[in-house]
Amino acid sequence: MDEEQDQWIRAPVGDDAARWATRVRCRRVLFVVHNVTSATRLLDVLPLFHDDLGVQLLATCTGTSAFRSGVADLFADTGLPALPWEQALATPVDLAISASFGGELPSIQGPLIALSHGIGYTKRLAP
């Protein structure tokens, strides 16, 4: 395992995650955050999944925004498992939800939807 993978979480996703699972056949929903502004928009839809025990929520940050300060604290406050970006790209999901076009979104292993988070929503960002 390389140094980058040393930072990967082991549960509820990862090579041996099934060992720790208390529920099986959960759908994985990945919240993809570019910065705190886009994260607050995703928090608006978080309650839609609150009572569904058949959904495993995950979060990640693309790491591509110059304004990502505070994202780690926001993840900690939500209680969602936060995957490093490279692990998120390696983890198949049933749905990924983003409120930004930043990062390597086409590399996500699963269907992706993008929500508006304000006036800058329609701008395209350079890779």
List keywords for this structure.
5-stranded parallel β-sheet; 5 strands; globular; about 130 residues; alpha/beta
Protein described:
This protein is α/β, with parallel strands linked by helices and 127 residues long. 19% of the residues lie in helices and 18% in strands. Strands 3-2-1-4-5 form a five-stranded parallel beta sheet. Strand 1, helix 1 and strand 2 form a beta-alpha-beta unit.
Low-confidence stretches: none
Shape: globular
Rg over CA atoms: 14 Å
User: Count the helices. How many?
Assistant: 3
Arithmetic mean pLDDT? 81
Strand order of the largest sheet: 3-2-1-4-5
Brief overview:
This protein has 127 residues and is α/β, with parallel strands linked by helices. Helices cover 19% and strands 18% of the residues. Strand 2 (55-61), helix 2 and strand 3 form a beta-alpha-beta unit.
Topology of this protein?
Layout: E1 27-33, H1 36-45, E2 55-61, H2 71-78, E3 82-83, H3 85-90, E4 95-98, E5 112-114
Parallel strand pairs: 1-2, 1-4, 2-3, 4-5
